[in-house]
Amino acid sequence: IPLQFAGLADVSISEDIPVEGEITVPVGAQSPEEDFSTLDEPVKDTIMRDLKAVGKKFVHVMYPKKSSALLRDWDLWGPLVLCVSLALMLQGGSADSKDDGGPQFAEVFVIIWFGAVVITLNSKLLGGTISFFQSLCVLGYCVMPLTVAMLVCRLVLLVGAGTVSFIIRLIVVVAMFGWSTLASTAFLADSQPPNRKALVVYPIFLFYFVISWMILTFTPQ
């Protein structure tokens, strides 16, 4: 009994001819990147990889140049560490005084993060192409020179608080203020329309100026 398919009158399959076989769909071999998952690796490897990524961003800030490396893999771990470190060093109250330094820590913490958010919103409203968290990442990492300035100022104040001490601190703070401003604008300026770059740089200037002023006027109790 011949078997015929509709529309194929000239083609028939006899029952004497066995019809058997397999229908398989070729699937491309998965690349190693597709098989990669942080759930399958030791916690130590994950932490070390993240620390190396944070360290590379610090290097980019210390040697600022127009590069997308700081924007490509953004994170907020570095900015958080810098913010907490700066806020702790700016605490003026001692352990045995009535002022325990809590409000100063909160003020510094809020000023840094609130200022970074305002600058980021300003950048987005002016037509910036950078994402919200990328901008926070850049502004946070570029606080590192000012954190170094705060550390140097604390060491200088251990020696004395005279005129020479103030001049040294002034030079260090001004140099690090310029470094932070230049580093942040090197990453953020190209993401803005050419005719609006000044409107973006000016708030960044004020942001780091306020932090620099807090560092320069710091006097331990």
TrEMBL record:
<feature type="transmembrane region" description="Helical">
    <location>
        <begin position="105"/>
        <end position="126"/>
    </location>
</feature>
<dbReference type="InterPro" id="IPR045231">
    <property type="entry name" value="Yip1/4-like"/>
</dbReference>
<keyword id="KW-0472">Membrane</keyword>
<feature type="transmembrane region" description="Helical">
    <location>
        <begin position="200"/>
        <end position="219"/>
    </location>
</feature>
<feature type="transmembrane region" description="Helical">
    <location>
        <begin position="74"/>
        <end position="93"/>
    </location>
</feature>
<dbReference type="GO" id="GO:0005802">
    <property type="term" value="C:trans-Golgi network"/>
</dbReference>
<keyword id="KW-1133">Transmembrane helix</keyword>
<feature type="transmembrane region" description="Helical">
    <location>
        <begin position="166"/>
        <end position="188"/>
    </location>
</feature>
<dbReference type="Pfam" id="PF04893">
    <property type="entry name" value="Yip1"/>
</dbReference>
<comment type="similarity">
    <text>Belongs to the YIP1 family.</text>
</comment>
<dbReference type="GO" id="GO:0006888">
    <property type="term" value="P:endoplasmic reticulum to Golgi vesicle-mediated transport"/>
</dbReference>
<feature type="transmembrane region" description="Helical">
    <location>
        <begin position="138"/>
        <end position="160"/>
    </location>
</feature>
<dbReference type="InterPro" id="IPR006977">
    <property type="entry name" value="Yip1_dom"/>
</dbReference>
<feature type="domain" description="Yip1">
    <location>
        <begin position="63"/>
        <end position="214"/>
    </location>
</feature>
<keyword id="KW-0812">Transmembrane</keyword>
<protein>
    <recommendedName>
        <fullName>Protein YIPF</fullName>
    </recommendedName>
</protein>
<dbReference type="GO" id="GO:0000139">
    <property type="term" value="C:Golgi membrane"/>
</dbReference>
